[in-house]
């Protein structure tokens, strides 16, 4: 890979973990395509990156729709250059106990997490192969180990781990690595919304989570962004097909 500036695509980057990763990669010197369902919602992330001298563009895309993904990647190539870094972070929750979960609840979560990651990776991998260098980081979750009320989300996040390991096997000979991050409790709008659904304040929700977290604090998007930065670095080229539980303590 030449020393020219690399282009990264981060999905679900309008807020939360995705925004944190996008900002960190820009700090690392990458150009960043900030992708989210609502292009206007990406403005804050893009503005923050540009305000600190980085390069970023906002791109609206529904990652679960093939035509939308292909159009988004074409825009990335045109506006920033061929992408060789992909962070599949886009995700939604439709939590419910199994007997209450609708088919749409199931399909929507699978569509964004698994279908979306497949479509984005398939569309971008050729640019990595052509460059002889690439980095893929997929967002899993501790919910992959099972979580009450999240049969859809847990299955999708476990699927992300198998997807990651297969990408590592298929693409490794082209200089491409694929790794997954499985966050624990991270303070984002998504976890705040979960607290609201449970009838708790966000502070109460965070406090209730602390006994299960060895480091005695909840995570922040920057914690996940730091790990993503490592996986994407040149020095991490011998690490592939791994799943790291970034949860403030051990998970099994």
Automatic annotation (TrEMBL):
| Any single Pfam family the record assigns to this protein | adh_short_C2
One GO term in the molecular function aspect is: 3-oxoacyl-[acyl-carrier-protein] reductase (NADPH) activity
Name the keywords, alphabetized: Cell wall, NADP, Oxidoreductase, Secreted
Q: Which reactions are catalysed by this chain?
A: a (3R)-hydroxyacyl-[ACP] + NADP(+) = a 3-oxoacyl-[ACP] + NADPH + H(+)
Recorded hits in Gene3D superfamilies, A to Z, give:
NAD(P)-binding Rossmann-like Domain (3.40.50.720)
Domain Ketoreductase positions:
6-184
Gene Ontology biological-process annotations: monocarboxylic acid metabolic process
Subcellular localization, per the record?
Secreted, Cell wall
Per the similarity annotation, which family is this?
Answer: Belongs to the short-chain dehydrogenases/reductases (SDR) family.
PANTHER family reported in the protein's UniProt record? 3-OXOACYL-(ACYL-CARRIER-PROTEIN) REDUCTASE, 3-OXOACYL-[ACYL-CARRIER-PROTEIN] REDUCTASE FABG
Q: What is this protein called?
A: 3-oxoacyl-[acyl-carrier-protein] reductase MabA
Per the UniProt record, the lineage of the source organism begins with: Bacteria, Bacillati, Actinomycetota, Actinomycetes, Mycobacteriales
């Amino acid at each position: 890979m030449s020393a020219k500036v690399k282009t990264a695509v981060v999905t679900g980057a309008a807020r939360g973990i995705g925004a944190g990763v996008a900002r960190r990669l820009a700090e690392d010197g990458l150009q960043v395509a900030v992708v989210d369902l609502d292009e206007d919602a990406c403005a804050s992330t893009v503005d923050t990156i540009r305000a600190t001298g980085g390069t970023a563009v906002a791109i609206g895309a529904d990652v679960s729709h093939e035509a939308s993904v292909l159009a988004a990647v074409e825009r990335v190539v045109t506006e920033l250059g061929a992408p060789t870094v992909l962070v599949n972070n886009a995700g939604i929750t439709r939590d419910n106990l199994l007997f209450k979960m609708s088919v749409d609840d199931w399909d929507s979560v699978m569509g964004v997490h698994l279908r979306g990651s497949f479509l984005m990776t398939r569309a971008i991998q050729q640019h990595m192969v052509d460059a002889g260098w690439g980095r893929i980081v997929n967002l899993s979750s501790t919910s992959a180990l099972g979580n009450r009320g999240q049969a859809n989300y847990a299955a999708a996040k476990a699927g992300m781990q198998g997807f990651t390991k297969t990408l590592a096997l298929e693409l490794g000979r082209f200089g491409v690595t694929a790794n997954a991050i499985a966050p624990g409790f991270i303070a984002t709008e998504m976890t705040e919304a979960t607290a609201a659904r449970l009838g708790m304040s966000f502070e109460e929700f965070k406090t209730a989570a602390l006994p299960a977290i060895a480091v005695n604090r909840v995570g922040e998007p920057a914690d996940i962004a730091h790990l993503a930065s490592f996986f994407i670095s040149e020095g991490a080229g011998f690490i592939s097909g791994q799943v790291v539980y970034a949860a403030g303590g051990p998970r099994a």
